[in-house]
């Protein structure tokens, strides 16, 4: 009988870990998607990939998990860049990825002389 209780406790811990991992991956997906939308780049593969896991101490002093995720994005649909984010719980700690939108080509249909006269 004691082994059944220990097995149930181990199962509960495994389920809690799996559930928190899925929640962190969903949160990372939302953060990556929003960052790509804000930077006006294409979010590739529509997913994030867990690349790291370590034990850390949270702000409240308790131990928790720090998870690292990788995602990919493209400026023009041809190139491919990697982004990375670190989540401690559901809090974003580090983000490396697309920055603000950039102008890729000067528009030729706008005459700069007209803009100077105004």
From TrEMBL:
It comes from the Bacteria. Pfam families: DUF3301. InterPro entries: DUF3301. This is DUF3301 domain-containing protein.
